[in-house]
Design a protein that fits this description.
This protein has one helix at residues 3-26, and strands at 32-37, 40-48, 54-62, 70-78, 81-91, 100-105, 110-117, 122-127. It is α+β, with helices and mostly antiparallel strands. Strand 7 (110-117) and strand 8 form a beta hairpin. The longest helix has 24 residues, at 3-26. The chain is globular, with a radius of gyration of 18 Å.
């Protein structure tokens, strides 16, 4: 096998191995940006569950265009009381966090509070299920 053939074969293998990793972040989801800071974003989309009136909320932190590392957090509240949460941990600039999930009931009593921050500042907001796109 010539050097050129080996190099071409290695390139194909590298692309084949890298494709699933890229697809894992894209996953065909219709991500809605909930909040941004320094180019980093906390994003969400929702999927209906088999239990009526409940959404599965998928969350991630996209730091591909961030100027520094960022961290995201989301809390589901019922009448302003926290009932569940998700935290991304620090996400290095240029990367995307693993996808996390929370369950959000429909109705005005429930809200998703999401925020993103750096080591010095943060930004966030409160959202109802109707404000989050389907995945």
């Amino acid at each position: 096998m010539t050097f050129v053939a080996r190099a071409a074969g290695a390139a194909v293998l590298t692309i084949a191995l890298a494709a699933p990793a890229v697809a894992a972040h894209a996953q065909g989801n219709n991500w809605k940006t909930l909040s941004t800071i320094n180019g980093g974003k906390i994003q969400a989309c929702k999927v209906a569950t088999s239990k009526p009136g409940v959404w599965k909320i998928k969350l991630r932190v996209d730091a591909r265009h961030a100027k520094s590392r960022v961290s995201g957090a989301a809390y589901v509240t019922k009448h302003d009381d926290n009932i569940s949460h998700w935290k991304s941990g620090w996400v290095a600039k240029g990367h995307v966090s693993k996808v996390g999930t929370l369950r959000l009931h429909r109705g005005s009593a429930y809200a998703l509070n999401a925020g993103i921050g750096t080591s010095a500042m943060g930004n966030g907001g409160s959202f109802h299920a109707g404000a989050i796109r389907g995945c």
